[in-house]
Amino acid sequence: MRSKNYQADYAEEPSPWTRPGFVLAAVLLLVIVALGVVVAVQSGDDDKPDSVAPTASAESAAPQPEPTGKLSTAVPVTAPAGVTWQVVRGTALPFSDRAGPREHSDKQAKGFARTPEGALIAAAQLVSRVGAAAGRASWEPTLTQQFLPGADRDTLQAALAAEPEQQAQPGDLAPLAGYLYLTYTPDTAVIGLAYRSVNGATARWFIVTTTLQWRDGDWKMVAPPGGAWTSLSRTVTDLNGVVEWGAR
């Protein structure tokens, strides 16, 4: 007699592909594969740089020199605007938020703009600060750090060192009265500085020709021939051709 389980024992086995356990496993496998694809895509995106605006660093925030072709070469034919005057070691000196100096004390002034106005203010500052009347605390760092090296600079330094220590008082020194540009490029500026003589009843001025070169991110001065400013100075009886400029 056949067992009542005959049908179950001997009937054709159902296909394993249709068994519930296998179907569930297949579904789970598809889910895992799909998740793997999503993770792989996201990982690939993570390897790409984020498209966010760059953050300005301290270096990029600082003023950067422009290509020479874009630098201004138009010299001011009237007194530069936005200039204030401060008495430094007995002399009124020019300061500008736009043209410099960016760093200054009673000993030194640095950081001038690479523009005609920047060169002009640098000339006025450096000539005054390197004088014997400014005192050694001023002329020595100015000369050694802001004048181009050479025999003339060495001679000027020796002459200044031989002078007795002194400190000028307001009114002792010839005040700045004006300027004239002789030549100007973004690399070299030749500027005459006019000073009013404080001696004698007759009005007289003397013009000192200064030369500056753009080096290491700032204007540096060329020492006078033989270390003597008298070699670059001439006396005039009027200010024809000179733009009047000075403390008022």
UniProtKB/TrEMBL annotation:
Keyword Transmembrane helix in annotation: yes
Any single Pfam family the record assigns to this protein: DUF8175
Low complexity: compositionally biased ranges: 53-63
TM segment ranges: 21-41
Residue span of region Disordered: 44-72
Domain DUF8175: 48-243
Name of protein: DUF8175 domain-containing protein
Keywords, comma-separated and alphabetical: Membrane, Transmembrane, Transmembrane helix
Record InterPro entries: DUF8175 (IPR058488)
Domain of life: Bacteria
Annotated organism of origin: Micromonospora lupini str. Lupac 08
